[in-house]
Structures are given as C-alpha cells and as structure tokens.
C-alpha cells in the first residue's frame, strides 16, 4: 500500500520531534535532573511515537475502506489493519 505523501511527511516530522525529545531525555539524565521531570519527558516522547503510529494506521484504514479489493491484494485486508491498530492501542 502506497502511503500519501502528506502522511509520510507528517509521520517523518513527528519522528524527528520524538528523536529530539529522546535526546533531551538523555541530556536530562546527564545533568542529573529530577526523576519526575525525566519521566514526564519520556511519557511525552512515548505519546508522540504512538501518534505517529496512529497516523499511519489511520491512513491505512482509510485506504482499506475506500479500496477494499486493492488493499487485500496489497496484503492489507481490513482485519490486518485492525490488528495493527490494536497493537498501538
């Protein structure tokens, strides 16, 4: 299944943001920052990564609903996309 360019661009932007957050967490640990602050940043990075995954699955689900035969031929029947969603949920 080919993802639309706007979805790919959005997910890449989200992943760059997550990478920056992870680097920030590493710096916080180096600096000896408070545990609660580090955990807050880890939580934010986790949520951002989940959102990137949900964006991909949402695009795939829309494709499956709009083009069910093509999606199945591409190896993405609706039940497979639902399983991907459940992995993120």
Oligomer: single chain
What's the main sheet like? Answer: none
Radius of gyration: 17 Å
Query: How do the helices and strands follow one another from N- to C-terminus?
Result: HHHH
Would you state the CATH class?
A: Mainly Alpha
Classify the fold: give the CATH topology.
Answer: Methane Monooxygenase Hydroxylase, Chain G, domain 1
Question: Which parts are unreliable, with pLDDT below 50 for 5 consecutive residues or more?
Answer: none
Please, what is the average pLDDT? 93
The total domain count is: 1
Q: What is the straight-line distance between the termini?
A: 22 Å
Alpha-beta content class: mainly alpha
Strand content: under 5%
Instruction: Tally the helices.
Output: 4
Q: In total, how many beta strands?
A: 0
Write the topology of this structure.
Layout: H1 5-30, H2 35-66, H3 68-73, H4 78-88
Helix pairs in contact: 1-2, 2-4
3D structure, described in words:
The protein has 89 residues and is mostly helical. The chain has one domain (5-88): Methane Monooxygenase Hydroxylase, Chain G, domain 1 (Up-down Bundle). It has helices spanning 5-30, 35-66, 68-73, 78-88. The longest helix is centred in the middle third of the chain and has 32 residues, at 35-66. The protein is elongated, with a radius of gyration of 17 Å. The mean pLDDT is 93.
């Amino acid at each position: 299944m080919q993802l639309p360019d706007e979805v790919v661009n959005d997910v890449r932007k989200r992943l760059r943001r997550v990478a920056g957050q992870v680097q920030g967490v590493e710096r916080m640990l180096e600096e000896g920052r408070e545990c609660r602050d580090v955990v807050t940043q880890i939580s934010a990075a986790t949520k951002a990564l989940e959102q990137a995954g949900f964006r991909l699955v949402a695009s795939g689900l829309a494709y499956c609903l709009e083009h069910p035969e093509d999606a199945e031929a591409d190896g993405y029947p609706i039940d497979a996309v639902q399983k991907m969603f459940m992995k993120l949920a």
